[in-house]
Amino acid sequence: MINVIIADHEPIFRTGIAKLLAAEDDIRIIAQPQSMTHLISAVKGLLPHVLVMSSSFLPPLTDIHKLALAGVKRPIAIMILAAKTEEQSKFVPLGARSVVSRSASGDVLIKAVRELARGGFCLPADPTGKSRREVRHKVMSRLSRRELKIIAALVQGHRNREIAARLGTSEQMIKNAMVAIHDKTGMSDRLELALLAIHHQLLAQGTSTNGALCLAASTAS
Questions:
Q1: CA torsion through residues 26, 16, 103, 59, sign
Q2: Does pTM top 0.85 for this prediction?
Q3: The CATH number of domain 2-124, selected from 3.40.50.10420, 3.20.20.70, 3.40.50.2300, 1.10.540.10
């Protein structure tokens, strides 16, 4: 069962989202806090799998990361319901694993909740498809197939040692490859690189459905 907390200032919208998600057999709404104080208390006390929170509900943005780490045994997956999809660039680096439009269809919301509960990401598709294709082509033309495999493993959360074992090479070779990848992409760290891969759908795992890009969690090998 996927336990979900929904936080939104608008009672009608909050109730509508709750009814939509609760209609699914594998999703249970465990709280609908109406203030940030109540939200923090609910998150720490109930430890949901997924927190669905309106962007207008947010305190200082750095608190997104604090909420995600409120779960001692596992991070809490946070979905931001945003009025504008361009807000994605603000929320994801701060700890949100999903940014979904407030006007998204029910199917998109349900798919996103399930993907987050499995440890994945679900982000809005870039409305400028041509721009995304151009960036993807430009980046991929610089990267080798092996480097793309390394990025795929990185996005799945594997460390250098684990990536080396998967690819049958040494950890030092992976470190050297990461330096080359950062140089080719212009990304300064692993988080930026992962976000680039997710946002521009560089990897085969990414699939676009109903205007959202969902990236599955890593699977055991």
A1: negative
A2: no
A3: 3.40.50.2300
